[in-house]
Amino acid sequence: MNIGVLALQGAVAEHIRSIELAGAKGVPVKRVEQLAEIDGLIIPGGESTTIGKLMRKYEFMEPIRNFAAEGKPVFGTCAGLIVLADRLEGDEEPHLRLMNMKVARNAFGRQRESFETDLDVKGIDTPLRAVFIRAPLITEVGDNVDVLSVYKGEIVTARQGNLLASSYHPELTDDYRLHELFIRMAKERGTSHVGH
Ligand code: GLN
């Protein structure tokens, strides 16, 4: 399995490390053509406005939408979750509009800018260590979205078919089980499309 990490801005090297710990090959994706060589794509944390701007500049928007439409998995973490969302709170322009959810940026306020916690995540048997940094929250989800974890009543992990999103940074700890889950999603896609 080759798992790409969109390498325009943000925590790229950390994701590559977690992907490799989880047993797949990590590929920094800087050019659109590289999408053809990967089985899944991670959009990392960083700054969503900047990532969105660079995605438009380097013409990644349509190719990533097509990648997802082919059933290949896409995982957005923190700023990457914001980039995946169909709707943003306030009058901010959404980016990829792939996931049927509404997202509030910087939703924890100044007091809780960054913190770590252990989260119960559906599909992972013991709590996952999660690092939140100026994190967004999912404030609404459509019926086709599965909520995988909540923190203090707020949605922080969600899945919609081949799309996965986390409010936090799963790549900043040694706990790479969310990456393993994502790699399983990529493998399932691989087998379910055999013969097509
Ligand atoms: N606050 C950032 C944004 O709105 C996201 C922070 C992060 O990715 N750690 O884009």
From TrEMBL:
Write down a Pfam family by its short name.
SNO
As recorded in Swiss-Prot or TrEMBL, the protein's gene is named pdxT
What assembly does the database describe for this protein? In the presence of PdxS, forms a dodecamer of heterodimers. Only shows activity in the heterodimer.
Recorded catalytic reaction(s): these are: aldehydo-D-ribose 5-phosphate + D-glyceraldehyde 3-phosphate + L-glutamine = pyridoxal 5'-phosphate + L-glutamate + phosphate + 3 H2O + H(+); L-glutamine + H2O = L-glutamate + NH4(+)
Which residues, by range, are in coiled-coil regions? none
Report the source organism: Cohnella soli
Amino-acid positions noted as binding L-glutamine in the UniProt annotation, renumbered to this chain: 46-48, 105, 133-134
According to UniProt, the name of this protein is Pyridoxal 5'-phosphate synthase subunit PdxT
Question: What's a single GO MF annotation on this record?
Answer: glutaminase activity
Catalytic machinery residues: 78, 169, 171
Q: Which SUPFAM superfamilies match?
A: Class I glutamine amidotransferase-like (SSF52317)
Annotated function: Catalyzes the hydrolysis of glutamine to glutamate and ammonia as part of the biosynthesis of pyridoxal 5'-phosphate. The resulting ammonia molecule is channeled to the active site of PdxS.
Q: What EC number(s) are associated with this protein in UniProt? A: 4.3.3.6, 3.5.1.2
Q: In which pathway does it act?
A: Cofactor biosynthesis; pyridoxal 5'-phosphate biosynthesis
Record bears the keyword Lyase:
yes
Q: Which UniProt keywords apply?
A: Glutamine amidotransferase, Hydrolase, Lyase, Pyridoxal phosphate
